[in-house]
Amino acid sequence: MTLDPTPVLDRPLLLVGCGKMGGAMLQGWLRDGLAPGLAQVVEPAGLPDLAARGVHVHGDLAAVPADLDPGAVVVAVKPQTMDKILPGLAPLVSSRSLVLSIAAGKRLSLFEKAFGAGVPIVRAMPNTPAAVGRGMTVLVAGTAAGEAERALAARLCAAVGAVGWVDDEGQIDVVTALSGGGPAYVFLLIEVLAKAGEAQGLPADLAMRLARETVTGSGELARLSDEPAAQLRRNVTSPAGTTERALNVLMADDGLQPLFDRAIAAATARSRELAGDA
Known about the structure:
alpha/beta; Rossmann fold; ProC C-terminal domain-like fold; eight-stranded mixed beta sheet
């Protein structure tokens, strides 16, 4: 990943919630040149390693300096705790602060109501490969977010992987279903491939190794190749060969495509339910 040599921010960055995703993003920002002294983190569990590096760590919002004036506020708490967090966070937010939320199912309107219509807000949906700098994050901006705020939001998310945008917030539900949950589907594919190999007589440890290396290697090949996935599939498939025989099953009318259509539709519907749209 090529990092921008300019500073991420020259004003404080307030991170509320430093679990797996928030922690991965913070490490990315520090790698991307954020001065540790500009990072203010609220995490009840405490983070002694980060504190030793010069990051300001607070057990709750009440401990954050009231005159902080952050350039960005990143909300990375669990969705079910959001209603408890927002009232205490509101005094720290102004129209000078970008608010970036990575909470699933929490609409822009919730933050606009809590902070006021003039506060620039961007909602993001990252996924767990952010932990290794290979995440995919899709963003949608509120009406008060201009080009500068959009650029800052993209920069913050790019520290942990690729970034994309949608204009329709409703599409975030599909993003949640596809890329937010996508790593789980890929891990399930590894499990399924390994079990299928075992069923044909391979030792369990070898079947799992073959499945893991095949999926991760194929993913890297897809990342590095300019060819579309369909062509990469055809490149592996010899006419009348073993792969074609397997694909005849997987691409049948009752194969993978209708199964994934139903799966993504179910996850999209659940995302809308969690947002209160259903």
